[in-house]
Design brief:
By secondary structure, the protein is α/β, with parallel strands linked by helices. The protein has one domain: Alpha-Beta Barrel (TIM Barrel), CATH 3.20.20.140. It is 33% helix and 18% strand. It has helices at residues 21-30, 51-56, 88-91, 111-121, 142-152, 160-163, 173-186, 206-214, 227-235, and strands at residues 4-8, 35-41, 63-64, 67-76, 96-100, 127-130, 155-159, 190-193. Strands 1, 2, 3, 4, 5, 6, 7 and 8 form an eight-stranded mixed sheet that branches. Helix 4 (111-121) links the parallel strand 5 and strand 6. Helix 5 crosses helix 7 (173-186). The longest helix is centred in the last third of the chain and has 14 residues, at 173-186.
């Protein structure tokens, strides 16, 4: 069992999600989690969080239903220069950011262009996680990304929603295998993420955990059960 999930979404992300942060925290607490990260989509996602929403998170409680809550964002990479959809002054108020590519905001480029976009996005000190970097629609050079991520204190996630039968990104197994291969090579930690858009899947790593265990990826490099180490990593600037 893993006790932290730092890629989840509330009603502020749109997508038909109707649960509040409190709903997510209550569900996470019932499932035995000790740390929950709320990472609603950035403003470029249709019907997602506004700048004022992200600003208000500064005043949100850090303890809900007996667990600790951190507040971040899943930001959209908008171009090959790594431009993100939240202004720097607001991004600096958050605990951390995940950066992802979504078809609505970033038309897939070449392998080199997609890789460069991630590299450019990683230069912001609040960016800590590469979101669902397994998407076959966005080919990347995983070895180059892993080396740069190591330098910048950024990590990959293994995304439950990518590997689960209900996923919509296509066959992400090659990308996940490459992520694990390169992270093992460079001794780069990972996190398992539910990418949950509701309480039903918060803390659910059924397929992600099975995948990393079948790959015999070192448990010492999975941060979900190492909360002090995970928090220290997220707080590193």
């Amino acid at each position: 069992m893993y006790i932290s999930d730092i890629h989840t979404h509330s009603i502020a992300s749109g997508h038909g999600t109707h649960c509040t942060i409190s709903d997510m925290a209550k569900a996470a607490s019932k499932k035995g989690l000790r740390l929950l990260g709320i990472t609603d989509h950035g403003p470029a996602t249709l019907a997602a969080g506004t700048p004022s929403y992200f600003r208000s998170l500064t005043y949100s409680p850090r303890k809900r239903f007996g667990l600790e809550v951190m507040y971040g964002a899943e930001l959209n990479i908008l171009d090959t220069e790594g431009r993100l959809d939240l202004e720097e002054d607001l991004l600096d108020l958050l605990d951390y950011a995940i950066v992802s590519m979504h078809v609505q905001n970033f038309p897939a480029g070449t392998r080199e262009q997609n890789t460069q976009a991630y590299i450019s996005a990683m230069r912001h000190p609040q960016v800590k996680i590469l979101g669902h970097c397994d998407d076959p629609r966005y080919p990347v050079d995983y070895d180059v990304l892993a080396r740069y991520a190591k330098e910048q204190d950024v990590i990959f996630e293994i995304n439950e929603a990518s590997l689960a039968p209900y996923g919509y990104r296509g066959d992400t197994r090659y990308g996940c295998r490459e992520i694990l291969r390169c992270c093992r090579k460079y001794e780069l930690p990972i996190v398992l993420s539910s990418d949950s858009h509701g309480p039903g899947h918060v803390g659910d790593f059924t397929y992600a955990a099975e995948f990393v265990h079948e790959a015999m990826f070192p448990e010492a490099l999975i941060l979900n059960n190492q909360i002090p180490r995970l928090k220290a990593f997220l707080e590193t600037r």
